[in-house]
Amino acid sequence: MSVTAPLGFRAAGVSAGIKPGRARDLALVVNDGPNRAAAGVFTANRVKAAPVLWSQQVLAGGRLRAVVLNSGGANACTGPEGFQDTHATAEKVAALLEDSAGEVAVCSTGLIGERLPMDELLAGVETAAAQLARDGGLAAADAIRTTDTVSKISFKRGGADEDGAYMVGGMAKGAGMLAPALATMLCVITTDAELTGDELDVVLRSATAVTFDRLDTDGCMSTNDTVLLMSSGASGVRPDLDEFEQKVTEVCADLARQLLVDAEGASKAIAIEVVGAAGEDDAVKVGRAVARSTLLKCAIHGEDPNWGRVLAAVGTTDAEFEPDRLNVAINGIWICRGGAVGDDRDKVDMSPRDVTITIDLSAGPHTATVHTTDLTAAYVHENSAYSS
Amino acid sequence: MSVTAPLGFRAAGVSAGIKPGRARDLALVVNDGPNRAAAGVFTANRVKAAPVLWSQQVLAGGRLRAVVLNSGGANACTGPEGFQDTHATAEKVAALLEDSAGEVAVCSTGLIGERLPMDELLAGVETAAAQLARDGGLAAADAIRTTDTVSKISFKRGGADEDGAYMVGGMAKGAGMLAPALATMLCVITTDAELTGDELDVVLRSATAVTFDRLDTDGCMSTNDTVLLMSSGASGVRPDLDEFEQKVTEVCADLARQLLVDAEGASKAIAIEVVGAAGEDDAVKVGRAVARSTLLKCAIHGEDPNWGRVLAAVGTTDAEFEPDRLNVAINGIWICRGGAVGDDRDKVDMSPRDVTITIDLSAGPHTATVHTTDLTAAYVHENSAYSS
């Protein structure tokens, strides 16, 4: 179902020949309305790919007729020519839809620093436009994969009853997290509920802040990350805004979880749950520092409940805490109490794929959870061999 | 030669039984004067091991009679009992030297979260005190190793002629860098030149700022890092302060280089040379961000001159630069010019162990170099298996 679960959307995923072989590498998602309100969030990296620079301008208008996405090349660090390539792609989509390029977003993912094969890409856009269909969501989700081993899709129903019901659907790609430098995260979320661009913007920022923004598999931030939210209004339903935000957050969380499980080379999904923080910012800061400790990630890979590496990472932050009041549990066993040895570490069962590290800062009532993965030889292998 | 290269110092390195087997694990370095001015720099981690908390207090006095160091246990996150253990160790050294514990520093390295075996340790201190010798520097350097495959020592001669000559000697351990959470860096530097504690403090801070502080092998910061500088004044030479600072910096740089080459699992030594920065801070910030990109470190391991991952890391900083004015050379070939593709990447020879990545921010005259290593399956293996 993916992005075509909501009414008013058609999609396609085709093989344009950007990637070697016959794999799908180009996706098109079109909003047939009646509305076309939209919002987007983009990478915070200051080195932004051409499609990000383009799509940020487009989304400033708060409207989107279509988004075209390609895998097989990030079109990042490609200079003015790369930007022209993105522009030409949007113009091609616009011409085929007899619409304005100013309402066509572009997303790219793949290697940095190489121009896209524009002849193949533009021909692929024609093929995709011809194949646009109400059931094209799965093919589109397949076409945006790079090192992703599976397609990531999600959908949720909102609204009280038959008449007031609406859908939220989504697709994503990313074999790392919000921000791996190559395995960029792209995500398109659609809804047939009726909302304004401003409403979508608020909802999207809130939803991504507690989902994609709290995934941190390798601390690397992409040049291409893009999350788009498009509304067709085709259900004719004006949703309750709180409920709608909850549905979009659920779709984002579901997709984020799929990204985490499929992260490059990962064998463990690690939830870092920070409690007792003086503020939510502190909790996120601590969670992120722990998620980025390569030593801890190696230990978890080795099924070693190494709380010392947790404390060492917490100690690098400026969050509010006293070292001798820190408590750490791994999979429910409080193996560090008061900054020193706690319960018996042999009681910790490290065998499940899911590992939860709970860090109690003993400094207040706030909490946050950051998700990461372990660091494995497979990650090193995959990222040593990527472009050569 | 190591720490006993300068006059006025004796040292010993013995097996106390803290580590399994018969490996040396306890070192003692004693300053016989006539002076005992000293300075220290310590980890910035807020979770500090007991010996760091103790030695910081001791060094506040600017004087040091001796330093006792153990491998086999970090004595970090061990609560008030751990601090008492450190205190007892200093008292033992003081009693044997008939001196004050308030001028005895303590350093520990090894696993976090476990108490030290104090009976063995205190007996080892006695053995070490009995073995103190003018040629004990090598044994001391050997005794502080953990996962270090070799001892790290260095010495330089300063002063103009025979009469005005003085020595600077040093030893270090650390299988990562200033700050791997377990493979803590410890370093003791000695000199027979005559200086005050304040002078030593200024020199040590300047020297470490451009050497150990610019090593970043895995971004992890230890709970135990300690660098000490001790002056005996036994040469009777008042050195030229600028020259002395240069000599201490050379010893630190030499030891830092040895740490880098011996870093856990590393197969490449990577120098990240940032030029054209608006300020030295910007240059260091950019160098550190690039040094911490696990994706880039994997690429270098795979001998892939992946400048896209360099730019993606630069883009995460708030340093002054324009993305389309960034230039990147790897081993002398400018493969990225103006933020886009530059010279032919096939010209880059990635086969040497030493890899230099030059990043031109085109924003000013300042430069800095940060040193790191590649990320390898061997690193993952070593750090997955460390404590289990």
UniProtKB/TrEMBL annotation, chains A, B:
Pathway: Amino-acid biosynthesis; L-arginine biosynthesis; N(2)-acetyl-L-ornithine from L-glutamate: step 1/4; Amino-acid biosynthesis; L-arginine biosynthesis; L-ornithine and N-acetyl-L-glutamate from L-glutamate and N(2)-acetyl-L-ornithine (cyclic): step 1/1. InterPro entries: Arg_biosynth_ArgJ, ArgJ-like_dom_sf, ArgJ_beta_C. Its main location: cytoplasm. The record marks 183-184 as: Cleavage. GO terms for biological process: L-arginine biosynthetic process; ornithine biosynthetic process. GO terms for molecular function: L-glutamate N-acetyltransferase activity; L-glutamate N-acetyltransferase activity, acting on acetyl-L-ornithine as donor. It catalyses: L-glutamate + acetyl-CoA = N-acetyl-L-glutamate + CoA + H(+); N(2)-acetyl-L-ornithine + L-glutamate = N-acetyl-L-glutamate + L-ornithine. Keywords: Acyltransferase, Amino-acid biosynthesis, Arginine biosynthesis, Autocatalytic cleavage, Cytoplasm, Multifunctional enzyme, Transferase. This is Arginine biosynthesis bifunctional protein ArgJ.
